[in-house]
Amino acid sequence: MFLSLRSCKASACAVKESLLSFMATKSRFQAIRGTRDLLPPETALWNRVEETAREVFCTFGFGEIRPPIFEPTELFARAVGGDTDIVSKEMYTFEDRDESSTSLRPEATASVCRAYIEHGMQQLPLPVKLYYIGPMFRRERPQKGRYRQFYQIGAEVLGGSDAPAIDAEVIEMVMTFFDRLQLPGAQLEINSIGHNADNCRRGYVTQLKSALEKVKDKLGADSQRRIETNPLRVLDSKLEHEQPIIATLPKIADHLCDECKTHYAAVKHQLEMRGVLYRENWRLVRGLDYYMRTTFEITAAGLGSQNAVCGGGRYDGLVELLGGPPTKGIGFAIGEDRLILSLQEAGKVPTVAGRDVYIAWMGEHAHATAIRAAKTLRSAGISVELPPTEQKFGKALERASKLNSRYALILGDNEVAEGSWTLKTLADGTQQKVTEPELLEFLKRHRD
Ligand code: AMP
């Protein structure tokens, strides 16, 4: 990332000033509010979740895309919508060297569509099925399950048709993934928000708006504002006192055109054929025009108020809106942080990873042999801790236990000279003599 010379000088001054005040107050650096370090052993769970996503998505024919984490601000303004909180308040935006406005991505669907157009992917066998895993950035008020840097695992199906089987298969894929992870209390809700171009949603929104005008005084400030900017989003409101009012509003299901009704019924039938359990929720909406028909959300247990772990829907107009050819599209984004939180709440916490073998070596010859043995064992996939300096055997065994090692390999110059090494099982203290090839064989046989 390059900044202009002027801003470089200004920022160099700012850096110097903040460093001086930092030193004066002797404060310590801390991660910025809303961001956090992911540390072992928790990262083992993150890796397992991501590996499972890759495995499951691969069985559905999806390939990975890794778009950049910053893009032109205009891309997000167009794709996510200039009126949305995400774009109007929450983006991390800066001016790049050429003074073009650039933003850290608040989501990745826009990037995937941009890449689809940029690489002419409509020439590929359709539909193109892509998934991504990575950090997103939104300046939201941090709380449990809500961060300013958070991670999403998402997938998009672009091109092809709007066959209800595609919607159902995408949903089946997410549910298979959650099943594989044994996510507690995964609950799928679906809805159809109709089709704008066919007028069924436009007609509904007009009715919704006039119904909202009548109860405007009873609504909170956000909902009042949304009557004008985005009436569908009022249905999303979580405010306690608005709930009975929202319950009386017109429902989209009563306004769907025949085509949308048929599509929705077919999606439900397709889900049933796949054994995917769902609940209908007429209040599930997406606030932007190009979202159409299928929308879905998945909640999980143990998350309090921020319990949505996945949101998705059909967006047939988006690629065209970004300057590409008319393209069907459907996708979802999973909040990985929340997914992990829910798994942790259910007790799926990885234990601190230990070592298979701790090599307690003493003496110059033993060190050379230890280095060679470590290399052989590691290349067979066995984890080895090799202390960098000589330790007394007592100390070495103490450290081996602290590191939760399964075995200690005791190597003194005598053992090396005789070619007979000592392997100690730390759990029961038993010892055995082994030759170098026997060691490898033994460890391979006694793998977990
Ligand atoms: P969205 O892109 O807003 O549809 O969100 C999709 C999913 O991403 C949500 O269901 C959440 O699980 C997750 N998510 C959205 N915003 C945040 C955030 N600030 N912190 C953590 N997870 C988030």
Q: What topology, given as strand order, has the largest sheet?
A: 1-5-6-11-10-9-7-8
The averaged pLDDT comes out at 91
Provide the β-strand percentage band: 15-25%
Ends apart, CA distance between termini? 46 Å
Task: Kindly describe this structure.
The protein is an alpha+beta fold and 448 residues long. It has helices at residues 5-25, 42-59, 73-80, 85-89, 109-118, 164-181, 200-215, 221-229, 243-247, 258-273, 318-321, 336-345, 364-379, 393-402, 413-418, 436-445; strands at 63-64, 70-72, 93-95, 101-104, 128-137, 149-158, 187-192, 279-280, 292-299, 308-314, 329-335, 355-362, 384-385, 405-412, 421-425, 431-434. The strands form 3 sheets. Strands 1-5-6-11-10-9-7-8 form an 8-stranded mixed sheet, sandwiched between helices. Strand 15 and strand 16 (431-434) form a beta hairpin. Helix 2 packs antiparallel against helix 6 (164-181), helix 3 (73-80) packs across helix 5 (109-118) and helix 6 runs parallel beside helix 10. It is elongated. 35% of the residues are buried. The structure holds adenosine monophosphate. Residues 107, 138, 140, 145-147, 150, 152, 308-311, 333, 335, 337-338 line the site of adenosine monophosphate. Adenosine monophosphate is lined by residues 107, 138, 140, 145-147, 150, 152, 308-311, 333, 335, 337-338.
